[in-house]
Amino acid sequence: MTGIRKQESGIRKESEIRWRAVERLSRLLERDEREAVWGDLIESHTSPARALREVAGLVVRRQAAVWLDWRPWFALVTIVVPLGFLLSVASRGFADSAASYFWLYVRTGEWAYFAVPGWRRDVIAVAATAAGNFLALAGWSWSTGYALGRLSRRAWWIVALLFGVVVVTATLPSTTTGIMGYPEAHFRPVGLFFSGIVRVAFVLWPAWFGLTRGRAQGALPASAIGVAVILIALTLLMAGSLEGSLVYGWGLVLPQPGPDGVFATADDLRPLWWISIVALWPVTFMVIEAAAARAARRAA
Amino acid sequence: MTLGEFEYLMLTAAARLGDEAYGAAIRQEIEEATGESCSIGALYTTLDRLEKKGLIKTWMGDPTPERGGRPKRMVRVTAKGSHAAASFYNAVMRVSRGVGWAR
């Protein structure tokens, strides 16, 4: 008797798991279709195993149809790969830079030094650069998520997943141990941990919010253009940091001192100046879309 | 308008069901007629295709208790759909004349 009860309970549990899987999977369908399909499954007393097969089959067909459109491919080629890589490298570079400066000041500084104007100015400049970097990073990520949500439509979850994979893995084959203060063995774990936090807080999280907004119906309000202008200005200010984050860790392009022969001065050569344009591509998309919607409203 | 075999089956099932044509009913009708299983994936993607071609019109019906409060996707064959199905049927009848399995 106990054996039969155990068997029944096992079957019930298995059935529950399958129904839950059907429910999760069916979320990938459009709302109306999901409702109609669920109704059909209930009405025809479909078994959970068959329901799972049926819904999976429909989801696969729908997803395949979505990829026949050019937009998800466009999102993949022009946003997921280049922006995913750039944001991954930038987040790691900004995090490492902020962490190593923080370590430097904590290790060598004392509260009394704040009385010295030069020291104070340096600390404020470093803090302002770090804040500007993180703010710009969040802005780029939000606009990237927005453009992804707008372009990928029903393929959003595959596109979002691929974007996440690129952001997390792009920096794996590189290192930033060249940044000053970083080689300290006891500091390295803190630096790595901080880099992960920055990646989640300033890339993945804002990108998710942007994606959610991009998937929502309706164009952005006119204020979006204002936000975009601020982000463009911020990008121009932080362009040096962005280029620097690509230089360090990869060794692809060496920092070039300009005609004065001194590195980190205003005349340094900037072979990666065009990187800012890549970072601003989703913002540009956002502005064009908002402007087009405004023009359409006026025409109507 | 060229029809596929499955599209013809769906149009015919929907026409036979009349006001009672919706996803689950069409599926059951096809399964009974052909003796083969009809997947929900094939059913709903074909419904979309037929609607895009203007051969059917679909809309969401009212929720019913036997469906757990979920609505039906109702289907109606348009005049263009009836014409396409009739053309397909006539072509099959013509091409089948005189062959062993056509009785």
Detailed description of the structure:
The complex is a heterodimer of chains A (300) and B (103). Chain A has 300 residues and is an all-alpha fold. Chain A is built from nine helices and no strands. Chain A has helices spanning 2-26, 31-43, 48-66, 70-108, 117-152, 156-169, 188-215, 223-247, 275-299. In chain A, helix 4 (70-108) packs across helix 9 (275-299) and helix 6 packs antiparallel against helix 7 (188-215). The model of chain A has no long low-confidence stretch (mean pLDDT 82). In chain B, 54% of the residues lie in helices and 10% in strands. Chain B has four helices and two strands, in the order H-H-H-E-E-H. Chain B has helices at 5-17, 23-34, 40-52, 79-96; strands at 56-60, 73-77. The longest helix of chain B has 18 residues, at 79-96. Classes of the chains: A mainly alpha (300), B mainly alpha (103).
Brief descriptors of the model:
heterodimer; A: 300 residues; B: 103 residues; two-stranded antiparallel sheet; 54% helix; globular
Largest sheet of chain B: 2 strands, antiparallel
Helix content of chain B: 40-55%
Question: What is the alpha-carbon Rg of chain B in Å?
Answer: 15 Å
Strand order of the largest sheet of chain B: 1-2
What coarse outline of chain A follows from CA principal-axis ratios?
A: globular
Characterize the quaternary organization of these chains. heterodimer
Could you give the distance between the termini of chain B? Answer: 27 Å
Order of helices and strands of chain B: HHHEEH
What does the average pLDDT of chain B come to? 92
**Roughly what fraction of the amino acids of chain B lie in strands?**
5-15%
Strand proportion of chain A:
under 5%
Based on CA inertia axes, which overall geometry of chain B fits? globular
Order of helix and strand elements from N to C terminus of chain A: HHHHHHHHH
What count of helical segments of chain A does DSSP give? 9
Please outline the major beta sheet of chain A.
none
Structural class of chain A: mainly alpha
Unreliable runs of chain A: none
Helix percent of chain A reads: over 70%
